[in-house]
C-alpha cells in the first residue's frame, strides 16, 4: 500500500521539490537553513495510508513524521485525522506545504530575491498543533496542490499512538459515534455494587449486530481510550490480548485472568498489583450493575463503544463512585448452655460474630465442626485469648472476671459453605472433648477403626471408643462406589443425626460403657455384606444431653475372594 501511494504521488512530490529549489536562487542564510530543514523533513517522512488506522511507535525525544496528498484532480476535498495516544501525553502538529507560485516578471534583482525569500518562507505553515493524551480529531479541506506533513513527538518516554486519516467522509466512520451527551451516569450505589447508565450511541441504532458496549472497572483512574487502558494493564506486568472487543476466547487468557460468562455477559478480571481490572462486554444494553465490589472503595468506570468489524472504539466520558461502607457485622448473643448452629458462606469469607457476657469467672466454649473447615477467634474485652482452625470437637476453658465480654468470630477457610455448633456455659459443657471431665460422657477420639485381618467376603469388623457413662450407639452402613468416596466424606454433615439416614441403612443400636477408659472400647462385626464391595460406616453416640454426636465416617471394602 505504501509503495503504491509512493509511485502514485512521486511525480507531484518531485515537481514540488524541484519547484521549491528553482524558486529560490539566493535566499538569505536563515531562509536557506529553514528551507533545507523543510526538504529534509519531506524526504525523511513516511506515507500515511488513507482509510486505515496506523499504529505509530515513538521513541522519547525523537520526532516521527508522516505525509499525505490527495489524488490528482481533487480540489478542496474534505479530510479528517484522528490521533489516539495510548499512554503518556504527546505533541503532534500538521504542516502544509503549498506549491510555489509562477515565476516573477523581470525587474529589480534585489527586489526579486527578497520576494522569492518571502514566498519560500510562506510555502510551509502549521495549521494545527496539540499537546496532551486525549483523543483529538482535526477536520479540514485539502487542495490538490498541497502536501501535508504530520509530526509526532513524545517527551516523557517511549510510547505508541494510533493515527487514522480518511478522505472519504460520506460512506461512514471507522469509529463508532458517541451520543451528544457522552457522560456515564451513576444511578445506584450499594456496599458491593454500583449501577451505571449511559445514552445510546447512534451507531448502535444503525449497526446493532456489529456494535457492543464494553465496560472497564479499576481502582486507579479513568482512561481516555481503550488503547490507553490496554497499555496500562500490560505495563502492570500482564500480557493482554490485542483488544478488549476481540479478547473473548478462553484460550487467550493469561493465568492472572479470570473469565466469567453469565446471562450473555462476558467478564474478564485481571489480577494486577494495583487491584482488579474488570472488563465486561454486555452487548447493546446501556444499563449495567457492577457486582462483587469491595465496600468503602473508590472505583473508576469507563464505557467504550466497540465496532466488532473494524475493532475500532470510542470512549464515553469516564466517571467514578465510592461504594458504601460495610455495616457493622451482626452480633448474635450466646446464652448459657444454648447450642447455636452457624452456617458460614465460604465465598464471602466473612466473620460471623457471637457475643457472650460472663456471669461466672470460668467459662467453657465448645465447638462441634459439622462440615468444611472453620477458623475460630475468641477475644475477652478486646484481647485475643484463643485462635485456631477447628477439627472435629474442640473445647476451650477460659478463666476471667465477672461480666467479662467474650466475642467469638467464626470464618470458613474453604470456598464451600461450612457449619459448626457452638455452646457457651459456666457449667460442664454438653459438647466437649479433650477435657478430663468430658471423658465421662464423650470419648477421647471419634475415629472408627476397621480390622483388615478380620475382613471376609461377607463381613467386616469395626471398633470405636466409648465413655465412662452408659450411652447409646447406633451403627449405619451405606453401599458406595469408588468415585463416590471423596464426595461422601467431604459432604458429610458431622452434626446431623440418624434422622437424616434411610431406615434401610440402620444396622443396630447398642448400649455400653466402662469405668476404665483403657477398656472403654467396643467392637461390632457387620454381616450380610456383598463380596468386593465398598461400604461407608457411621456410628452415632447419644449421651445424657440427647444431642447426637457422629463419629468420623469409615470406608471399608469386603474381600473379593475368600
From TrEMBL:
Signal peptide: 1-23
UniProt-annotated location(s): Secreted
Pfam families xref list: NDNF, NDNF_C, NDNF_N
Principal location class: secreted
The Fibronectin type-III domain, residue ranges: 176-313, 443-548
GO cellular component, one term: extracellular region
Entry-linked InterPro entries: FN3_dom, FN3_sf, Ig-like_fold, NDNF, NDNF_C, NDNF_Fn(III)_1, NDNF_N
GO molecular function: heparin binding
GO BP terms, alphabetized: nervous system development
Keywords linked to the UniProt accession: Glycoprotein, Neurogenesis, Repeat, Secreted, Signal
Primary role: Secretory protein that plays a role in various cellular processes. Acts as a chemorepellent acting on gonadotropin-releasing hormone (GnRH) expressing neurons regulating their migration to the hypothalamus. Also promotes neuron migration, growth and survival as well as neurite outgrowth and is involved in the development of the olfactory system. May also act through the regulation of growth factors activity and downstream signaling. Also regulates extracellular matrix assembly and cell adhesiveness.
Protein name (Swiss-Prot/TrEMBL): Protein NDNF
Organism for this UniProt entry: Sinosuthora webbiana
Gene: Ndnf_1
